[in-house]
Amino acid sequence: MLRIFLIAFLITQTAFGQTGGSTYWIDNGNAYVAADANQLVKTTMPDRQKTTLVTSGQLTPKGSTEPLAIRSFSMSDDLQKTLVFTNTQRVWRYDTRGDYWLFDKTTNALKKLGATLPEASLMFAKLSPDGKKVAYVSKNNVYVEDVKSGTIKKLTSDNNTKKLINGTFDWAYEEEFDLRDGFRWSPDGQSIAYWQVDANKIRDFYMINNTDSTYAFTVPVEYPKVGQSPSACRIGVVNTETGKTKFMNVPGDAQQHYITQMEWANNANELVIQQLNRKQNESKIMYCNATTGATKTVWQETDAAWIDAKDRWNNNDPAGWYWLKGGQSFLWVSEKDGWRRIYSISRDGKQERQITNGNYDIMSIACVDEASGYVYFMASPNNATERYLYRTAIAGNGAPELLSPAELKGTHAYSISPNGRFAQHNFSNFHATKRGGWVSLPDHKPLPGETAQVTDLGARAPKVEFMKIRIDEGVEADAWMVKPTDFDPTKKYPLVLFVYGEPATQTVQNRYGVGMNNLYNGNMANDGYIYVSIDNRGTPAPRGRAWRKAIYRQIGRLNISDQANATKELLKLPYVDAERVAVHGWSGGGSSTLNLMFQYPDIFKVGISVAAVGDQLSYDNIYQERYMGVPQENREDFVQGSPVTHAKNLKGKLLYIHGTGDDNVHYQNAEMLVNELIKNNKLFQFMPYPNRSHGISEGAGTRQHLNNLFTTFLKENCPPGGR
What we know:
globular; Rossmann fold; 723 residues; mainly beta; 13% helix; 8-stranded mixed β-sheet; 2 domains; Methanol Dehydrogenase, Chain A; single chain
């Protein structure tokens, strides 16, 4: 997925759950455990009385004077065993590899797992349901370790190739489906179901490291380019005693389909999976018999564009299936009727009931409180730039009930207890924040002793104006604008457009960070710039399926014309200087920046593009084929949407920036674009950052240098201030 790396736009949320979080709900949501000063503390709700469950001394290895640094943890149901993840290492984007230690409260013993395996090589360790074993991945294989004896058993085989991947995923699955943890314990603790990804037919893309040794060396990444078949994928179930695996007989060519979800089907005999075809416009839900491998399809849907396999509004959405009635039905989210809605589907797939009604999108499911008969979800029916908590009856017979305070206009985020009674509430808009306040639900009242308040940022916050801008006949886009601090409507000011424009994210959201530019040294408003951002058609705003999928097979065209048309409308304002119009963006926004400079050179005079896809045929298959189709069928769409095709039209001042170690958008894109500009005798500035990845964050002084470069180029070529 192409991403924006403007960190101030992100709202940090406390993660709740077993994997990757620092807070762990227990007692059906009436208490939670959290790491505090390298110890684990239980907090009872709602009075929030604290009890230390595991001390820092108990988490100090023998021979050490320092306790383990807790990155995340999980616990057995009886709270007697604790897994601590520490000494973590980065795998592509996140720290998912490291060391796991097991603390047994019954014996007061702390031991490191995987004693015979390489240091910091363990991933996704999980206790078995009975707490007697731990399973984990190391070097692309699944292992199980007996807690009492310490015996380690290798359950899978990589056939002596690092490209046969068990229990985790290849680069493309991880990046585009957010799949990393690739195995699940059976409810009875006798078996483990796991993904096996065969990337042996995927060609390596070689990045070149020129700086870390006298002789350059290559860094290979198994990376399926658009138009290339993806890695084959299948599901296996291995018995932890015998070590024998049964692979599921999932229909269809394994290299022309994806398996994007897999869980135990609320029993120890069946799995439930979601399969997508390669073009990602056909989705099937299947059950797999864990013993025989037999598979049957119980529900399916198709879309003329694509079907999202994950929640694009909230990547921290709880993993797994939402089972109801003891497994007799499950919840599912679909936009097959034009809006993103929640459905209840019977286990056999024969009965379907719509739970959310009305012409609005749900953004994500926040909690399912079956005991009380409610599902909690995030939505914003009246304003696509905001986010609120609602609930509605699972029976589907009621109107949605707004739970977030109506007077707090902006973006709300929640971590909700499993019983739906308590939540940690974060809120922000462009001028205020509130972090970590505890509230009761559904009344949304502060818990006793709660002191968290909404903090107005005052002069620190940019004065953001939200607006609608016409982009086509009868179509308006959401936008924001920050005017100069000393704005004088009789003067003309330079316009700077911040752009993304692709289906991966929005830029126009009423939350903390909007209107700020973390690449600019200083304050753009104080210096005299008009700063603007626009969400074109195709951005993942809660405006219905038609809005989001209008961009299908038109990335690099529809989004670019929408942004250009909106800018034309802004140029009609008497205080905007048409001779000083700049645009900048990162990743997908970098691509949009290039296309705006090349396709509309008479409008955009200055551009700063970072980590852009210069040629859509060079990006990965999952992302590009989801939104653009398969190039064997419609290659011209990819060509016409690519900046390299239009580079010959450059007239303005361009600064292009790329990291040579970018495993996501390869540096190859930069050199292809540079070649095209050279061929057409176009002058520009170019800054490669050696061995920096897609975020260009590694190395001493990097971000300061990047900010100085950005700011200097903008000021020199698009001078600030009113005239």
